[in-house]
Amino acid sequence: MVSVEGIRGLTVDECVALCNAPRKLPVNVSRFQLWKHLRDEILTRLTYGTFARIGELLNVDVPDIDFKYCSIRIRHPKGKAIFKVVDGKRKHIETVSQERNVYFDDFTRDLLIRYLEGRKKGPLVVSSRGKRLSCREAERVVDCYARSVGIQKVIGHTKNGREIRLVTCKALREAGERHTDVNGADRDATARIAGHTVRTKETYYKRGNFEEDRKIVRRHHPLMREEETTGWTGN
User: Alpha carbon 79 to chain centroid distance?
Assistant: First the structure.
């Protein structure tokens, strides 16, 4: 059973700390370590900044990137299954998927240029062996840096007893969309960029809007406002 803490999403400060974590390089950093940390920072920034699913990001090839407009073409998006009742049974008819664009910031663009070093083809995110990075490896990268900055924690357990962690690729993607909504973005647009519907957003994302709810209560509740007026600190 998932604990109550399981509904808390990542805060802005936690996401920023995670995205900056790969910059903490060893003193005697090697060329390979520098490349790996650069790749890891790009991975975390794109997951947080583009709202794309980790599987979609790992399927991106270098030609899918438009550096002029800071966008990535998601050519292999997650499909939506279409079902139809046939002879009283629910039957899968087809899976519909539609390409879309996601967007990143100028700083990430500069990191990408440094990371690619002129490479024009092949997978964007690769392992140390030069192969396309797997979802499991990506999760390990995010978990490693979350632990390094002290924000990783267990927030619940599944029915099978497996740990549910606060910081995952999915949680980082959801936080990016949620934080953009809180800053005043059009919710239909962010849902379209993320590759789902507003109904999905309301069902799965809104419940994790921990940071926005906390700010609203602290800004408007009489007791919170009283603290600001009296300057009471509890000491």
Answer: 19
Query: How many domains, the chain?
Result: 1
Structure tokens at 193: 């960029």
pLDDT (0 to 100) of residue 235: 47
At 59, the amino acid letter reads N
Say if CB 9 and CB 171 are below 8 A apart. yes
Distance CA 29, CA 105 (A): 27
Give ∠ CA 28-29-31 in degrees, rounded to 5.
Answer: 135
Query: Are 159 and 3 spatial neighbours (Cβ–Cβ below 8 Å)?
Result: no
The residue range of the domain holding 181 is: 4-62+109-230
Distance of alpha carbon 25 from alpha carbon 107, whole angstroms: 19
> Could you tell me if 95 and 80 are in contact, meaning their C-beta atoms sit under 8 angstroms apart?
yes
Provide mean pLDDT across the span 46-56: 95
What tokens were used for 214? 């906390």
Q: Are 167 and 18 in contact (CB under 8 A)?
A: yes
pLDDT at position 89: 79
Alpha-carbon distance 67 to 210, whole Å?
34
Helix (H) or strand (E) holding 228: helix 222-230
Whether 171 maps to a domain, the answer reads yes
Residue 180's pLDDT is what? 92
Residue 87 within a domain:
no
CATH number of the domain to which 145 belongs: 1.10.443.10
Residue 235 lies in a domain: no
0.85 cut: is pTM over it? no
